[in-house]
Design goal:
It contains 16 helices and 7 strands. By secondary structure, the protein is mainly α.
Amino acid sequence: MSRNYSLQNLSNKASDLGYKTIDLLKNTAIEVLIVGVLSLPIGIHKGHKHERARAELIQLHFSEVDQMYRDAAKQGKHISTLNRALPLYNDLFMKGFESLNEANDWRYTDKYRMFAEQLDNHLNLKHLYSQQYNLTDLIDSVPELGKKLREELKKYYVAAPQVREIAQNIGAAWDVNYIDNYHTETVECGEDADGNTQYCEETVDDIDDTYYYYHNEQGDAASNISKELFTKIPQLHFDTRVVKASKTNADGEYAVEKSRGVDLKGGLTQKEHLEIAAYWITKSTINANVALIDTDYPRMETESKKWDISKKTAQDEHYISWGKHPGPEEYDQAQRLSEVSSLTALLLEEIVLNVNSMIEDVPKLGKKLREYVALDFFGEKDGKHYDYLKKKKMEKKMYKEIKNDMFEMYRKNFKLAENPDRYRYGMVALYGLIALTIGCSIGAGIDYLTTKFGLYGKINYNSLKQSRDNSF
């Protein structure tokens, strides 16, 4: 008896919950929320799956360096240091990215082992042509070419810290203090329920104060450093004219198209292949920044000369006006010099970082690549031997470090190229939003149909309750 009572009590509670649920479905549009919420994780999962597949296929662009040398020899053109260094630096990354692509191929269950095998192949590939390079050649050659490039870009190295110093001083030459003055007034704001007048306080603007404070020490420093810089380096120019490959080879074309499998429909034209093969120069940080500095450095000199004149009359100023006062002409001139010097400093610093990366980061990356291969093949690192589980744990960590290092170095040196980390979190969110919208639409349709045909209303509550009671 007690057992039957407990079962009946439990059944009553479950039935009551069911009735309430049916009542909720009948009288509200809860179906919109239910189906929408259920659809959201499906969309996010679909978006993540798509973006993960996209991220695991980095788009490659080899430089066709062997063809470039043949073209230069045929045309009797000189191959500059820049022309030698950038293609090899580009191809170093491409061989690393190609190894990552192969390691992430769905056919292989252990991407860490496959990455090691691909790296080993690239590190020890036998030469087929005089200008063909394996990964070991690139790791050895790029730092030496970087040192030569650093010497050729010596003026940029000298100018970079001085331009930054100018930007910092002129940026600190003025301080602005804007005081927004106002007062409050009591005004009528309607009547209460009994017809009595109600009063409120509102803010009323007053004439404002703007104070401009000039710091003579920083203003003079910016002027003096500018004079010293432009006397020592009146012009900053570097010849970035290069020889590019006149055609692409079948192996390079296959690698380029295969790496675009997620996004590419059909093959690429020869024109497109040539454009991609020239990314080493058209997307490079050095090439882009040198072109901008050619314009900005002379403009900076012009603005610094104007500042020499303006600073003679620069002084603290106080303005009374409605809203913030734009300030004196001397302040505006300082702002113009600050803008162009800050931009020029950034461009110069990026070039310095780029070349330094060739010299310093490439040997470190090469050491990590060799250590990774040795760890995977022999379970050894830094003279120590590790068991299988420890080895796989260390391998996973090193794989992530190497991948991140290559991505960071590549972005630093080829800033106009596509980010090699191709996973787009925004697209995952978009997939989720689309799924949510579709789910809500389906839910709205369900709510409409059930309401129109009265499906929930056809459920006889009393009959169900009587049937439930009779079963005990």
